[in-house]
Design a protein that fits this description.
With 299 residues, the chain is an alpha/beta fold. It folds into three domains: 1-83, Multidrug-efflux Transporter Regulator, Chain: A, Domain 2 (Orthogonal Bundle); 85-171, Methyltransferase, Methionine Synthase (B12-binding Domains), Chain A, domain 1 (Orthogonal Bundle), CATH 1.10.1240; 173-298, Rossmann fold, CATH 3.40.50.280. The chain has 13 helices and seven strands. Helix 10 links the parallel strand 3 (175-184) and strand 4.
Amino acid sequence: MVKTQFGIKDLENLSNVKAHTIRIWEKRYNLLEPERTDTNIRKYDLDNLKKLLNVAYLYNAGYKISKIASLDNVQIQGLIKKNINGLDSEYMLNVFKSAMFEFDGELFDATLEKLLEKKSFREVFAEIFVPLLTEMGILWHSGTIDPSHEHFISEKIKHTIISYSAKLKQSNSQKGQLFSLYLPYHEIHEISLLYANYELISAGYNTIFLGPNIPLESLKHVLNTKKNVIFVTYFTVRPENDNIKKYLIDFQDQVAHKGSCELWVLGNKVEKNSKSTKSVKFFRDIKQFTDHIEKLSIS
């Protein structure tokens, strides 16, 4: 069952306003109107949640809570539009949260379109999508949101990256170097890999996107028909920490011997002291990855 009612702890998690503060705002200013259970526990609906997100935004922007509480919803929206000067990241994150809770794909698309009028897709991904996905993961694990909410946002972002990658592929001339992107066996979180694919296409490179859950032995088939391939992967969940060294050795034994290739590794399992070799390169984050691509394009 998808959540449409929230406890005060859920509101705290979603708005970053402490439950104690929410209670004070209710008592002093009648800010929200929760229902009460038979045991007097507060339950908030979507309208209450959306109002709190807007109130929290204005409060953090410096407006006094007494001023905000005196406004109706239309006036609050007007003040936000006046204050954000078009494209404030914090407010846009709240709009995407609203789209998530209402499963509103049109609101998601319209908000993205508005953002892209002033920002590059790279900026939107780094400033909006990455923080949004990080927060959604935390909220999912804490039980604040239903898996269906997290899946809705994830799929919208995935399809957005795929769409923009396809548009770039049609317009960009392709360079000679070929990249093949995949996730290790049992690894299924592919948004970061899709974005790496977008950056490579944006730089003008040819890519083969294999996607998630690929055994090492399957990579050999790429080398049967392609030469000088750079494989790109993310270590997020797999391989497990004590198996990373073995995975890299297996890559050399099972894949690299088939032909000329490299392995580029990103993800949170890449440690600061991970040292690149001639055939394996480590990238601590997507910026280090994109910087390297740009240097490669120039050379």
